[in-house]
């Protein structure tokens, strides 16, 4: 009976090398980089502007609507390409399943449209 270690040895070497390179890069950066903190570097900021509010304030609902919109289009893109490539193999059941999926995404898109997430102020 042959042991499994020779099969996994290249993977272990690859993991060890990756860890070594990562730790070496972080260590070199830590020891070589200058450390001169000042008030501007240590201050918190929001998109390049000084912070004006407490960080624990609730977000505007439009932020969540844009996030939902991104998920809708991201999911659609991520699932449509492999589905289109394998459509000949999956046949009619695949076509029906994708129709249901697109229908659910369409419902989400209509919800976004009605809530006004597509209109910028």
How would you characterize this protein structure?
This protein is mainly alpha-helical and 121 residues long. Helix content is 71%, strand content 3%. The chain is built from 4 helices and 2 strands, in the order H-H-E-E-H-H. It has helices spanning 5-32, 39-42, 61-85, 87-115; strands at 45-46, 49-50. It has a two-stranded antiparallel sheet with strand order 1-2. A hairpin with a 2-residue loop joins strand 1 and strand 2. Helix 3 packs antiparallel against helix 4 (87-115). The longest helix has 29 residues, at 87-115. The model has no long low-confidence stretch (mean pLDDT 83).
List the helices and strands and how they pair.
Elements: H1 5-32, H2 39-42, E1 45-46, E2 49-50, H3 61-85, H4 87-115
Helix pairs in contact: 3-4
Q: In order across it, which strands form the biggest sheet?
A: 1-2
Number of strands: 2
Task: Give the CA-based shape.
Answer: flat
Ends apart, CA distance between termini: 71 Å
- String of helices and strands: HHEEHH
Using brief descriptors, characterize the structure shown.
mainly alpha, single chain, about 120 residues
Brief overview:
By secondary structure, the chain is mainly alpha-helical.
């Amino acid at each position: 009976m042959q042991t499994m270690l020779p099969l996994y040895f290249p993977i272990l070497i690859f993991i060890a090398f990756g860890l070594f390179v990562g730790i070496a890069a972080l260590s070199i950066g830590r020891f070589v980089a200058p450390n001169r903190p000042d008030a501007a570097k240590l201050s918190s900021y929001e998109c390049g502007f000084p912070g004006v509010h407490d960080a624990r304030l609730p977000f505007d609902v439009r932020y969540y609507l844009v996030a939902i919109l991104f998920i809708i289009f991201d999911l659609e893109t991520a699932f449509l390409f492999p589905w289109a490539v394998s459509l000949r193999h999956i046949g009619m059941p695949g076509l029906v399943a994708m129709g249901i999926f697109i229908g659910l995404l369409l419902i989400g898109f209509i919800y976004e449209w009605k809530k006004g997430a597509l209109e910028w102020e």
